[in-house]
């Protein structure tokens, strides 16, 4: 693939731009503005007290406190949201999170969630934003008896990285730091928990196999670029145009009877090779386009972390031809190490941690949990991890009953050293009052364990990187 001169010049200039950006002095932070009282978004219980604001680094947030909540007896749930979103942070992002997770407030817990200060893949920065909001929240509502850190989807990686840094006395009685503990337990739901490169391996496979079949992303009359880049900086492709191209090639927006034989064959091939159902192909291509662009161009200044060396693709009418012709890319080991330091959980959990994951989740597939389990076990922290699986395909939300019972179980683990497992969590879920318990509210599969990650995404040659823990800077 030949790169146009303008694009090659851009690649050479990124290191100069990066050095200039690093040499610019950082602005001195001002005192964070106090949260302001605000009408609660719709869907919150009557009597809830709500506050919102924007902190001095630009992160928007909401705080919600149930009626009659008292800090000396109450629990605060700190929320790290999924995504990551691209673009500037907005209050609407945090508003949507509060409405989706209103179950925490309805269960009697205070809740606080940040939009994060920036869009894009910045795990440790999002962790700092969450901790900064916790301090703002405590100043506004008081020190709660317990604080549970909840990470959803990509936010689970944010929470997992935070959970490596805080320790409770029951885990280490030698802890002598004065004052209350910042967090007591961690809940990770639908988590992207294998680190960014491994979690996105499926998406580089999707990009290269899709391009081999369809040849329209990029199109023949567009500037060529390596697919690991997502899009070059000058590209003007829109999501609507990408959806049009995908449908033209695969017919994914049409009924099967309306697809041409060629469209159906290409779609069937892509489904078999990449192991994604038809409705998930466009969403994952979007991530493999704009999220790849954010990671490689903005975060890594033009370096590649998405490789497919050694991958053997299978499921096409002629696998030998596919493996011969599909584009191949080698990840930059130094870039991999830099990204891992930000995004990859080390497994050194220091807090009681419970994960919940839908077995048929096609956004963050359940085999990612196997990688996380192995990472935690290798780090010697398996006794601080409980993983539970539900008969769900939804990624963004499963059921009120699952989340209520999970938080209750974590609090019992902290308060009574009563470590849960899948069986006890299922029993707790089924015993909840009727308000949490629709007929299908508890779908925990006590006998399920996910297969290894390599069984879902083909293994590839990759230079080991390891993620050294980095401190979370305090405001």
Task: Write a concise keyword list for the protein shown above.
single chain; globular; 475 residues; 2 domains; 15 helices; alpha/beta; disordered C terminus
Structure description:
Residues 12-26, 171-176 and 465-475 have low confidence and may be disordered. Helices cover 39% and strands 10% of the residues. It is of the alpha/beta class and 475 residues long. The protein folds into 2 domains: 36-195 and 345-455, Alpha/Beta hydrolase fold, catalytic domain (Rossmann fold), CATH 3.40.50.1820; 198-340, no CATH class. The N and C termini lie far apart (46 Å). It has helices at residues 5-23, 91-100, 102-106, 123-141, 154-163, 196-199, 201-214, 239-250, 261-274, 278-299, 319-325, 333-343, 368-378, 400-416, 422-430; strands at 36-37, 49-54, 60-65, 75-80, 110-114, 146-152, 185-189, 353-358, 385-390.
TL;DR?
The chain is of the alpha/beta class.
- CATH fold node name of the largest domain: Rossmann fold
Question: Regarding quaternary structure, how should these chains be classified?
Answer: single chain
N-C termini distance? 46 Å
Q: Structural class given helices, strands, pairing?
A: alpha/beta
Corresponding CATH superfamily of the largest domain? Alpha/Beta hydrolase fold, catalytic domain
- Count of helix runs: 15
Largest sheet: 9 strands, mixed
How many β-strands, per DSSP?
9
Average pLDDT value? 89
CATH class of the largest domain: Alpha Beta
Instruction: Give the tally of structural domains.
Output: 2
- Please indicate the percent range of residues in DSSP E strands (runs of 2 or more): 5-15%
CATH architecture descriptor text of the largest domain? 3-Layer(aba) Sandwich
What fraction, in percent, of the residue positions are helical?
Answer: 25-40%
